[in-house]
Design goal:
This protein has 271 residues and is α/β, with parallel strands linked by helices. Helices cover 29% and strands 17% of the residues.
């Protein structure tokens, strides 16, 4: 089962998910779809390690972006997921209810992330530990998960946030995605819903966090992470940021880019 069709984010003519798909040598990797809830969007695909790839003990959980909007589904992250499988990982490509869908937004999307990870952790054929890799809005969701008290109980070794919206306040001040943050939360800063969804409110994270951001990202500028990194480090957290020169918003999920090699290194460092 899949949700709505993929769409290209406005304002990103040269760094689209479609371009990432064209760049992947193994985007057709076989996948089996499993459910973690009754909604058609509460599913994930399982990709097995590619034949002949070096064996890696661990599962990468890929959480796609798209400013939490219904029109952006997991299909644009499939080349990224296939690249992790080619590198020898078991891979979960996650879907979730998004803003504009029944039950999507806060708290439904957050509930989906929690339930998704509980389901993945319970699968005997998906080796532990888990490393969560999220892009853009997905980077927000995995950073949010890193701050939850159940993070280690789910077998999460760490989180890699790629161009992630890790500070909702910063995203709101910059009006990212035409105020997509308020659409997702359903309210503005200072509300209980906002606080519950903001990774800034649960610092320090319960597991290590690696941020990979591009200097040329004009969709989620790297300064969105500044306060998160500073506050986390001040609290003694194991949080690092890798700022990739010349990388735009989609370079970090495009398998044939130097930026993606940095992503692979970040994942490997957590296992």
């Amino acid at each position: 089962m899949t949700s709505s069709a993929s769409a290209t984010p406005a304002g990103t003519p040269s760094g689209t998910p479609e371009a990432a798909a064209d760049a992947s040598p193994s985007a057709s990797a076989s996948a089996a779809t499993r459910s973690y809830g009754s909604d058609p969007a509460q599913v994930y695909d399982v990709l097995q390690p590619a034949a002949g790839a070096p064996a890696v003990t661990g599962t990468v959980v890929v959480v796609h972006g798209g400013f939490w909007h219904a029109e952006y589904d997991r299909e644009h992250a499939r080349p990224e997921a296939a690249a992790f499988a080619s590198a020898g990982y078991h891979v979960v490509l996650a879907e979730y209810r998004r803003a504009g869908m029944p039950g999507g937004g806060v708290p439904g999307t957050l509930d989906d992330v929690r339930d998704l990870l509980a389901s993945v952790a319970a699968q005997p054929d998906l080796p532990k530990p888990l490393v969560l890799v999220g892009h853009s809005a997905g980077g927000h969701l995995v950073a949010w998960a890193a701050g939850q008290p159940w993070a280690r109980e789910r077998g999460i070794a760490g989180v890699v946030s790629l161009a992630g919206v890790v500070d909702l306040g910063a995203a709101d001040r910059l009006h990212l995605g035409s105020d997509a943050t308020r659409d997702f939360v359903g309210s503005g800063p200072g509300t209980a819903a906002w606080t519950s969804a903001d990774p800034m409110s649960t610092l320090p994270p319960k597991v290590p966090v690696r941020l990979v951001n591009g200097t040329d990202d004009d969709v989620v500028p790297p300064e969105v992470a500044d306060a998160y990194v500073a506050k986390a480090k001040a609290a003694g957290a194991d949080v690092t940021e890798d700022l990739v020169q010349g990388a735009d918003h989609f370079a970090v999920i495009t398998p044939d880019t130097p930026a993606f090699q940095r992503v692979l290194a970040a994942v490997h460092s957590l296992l």
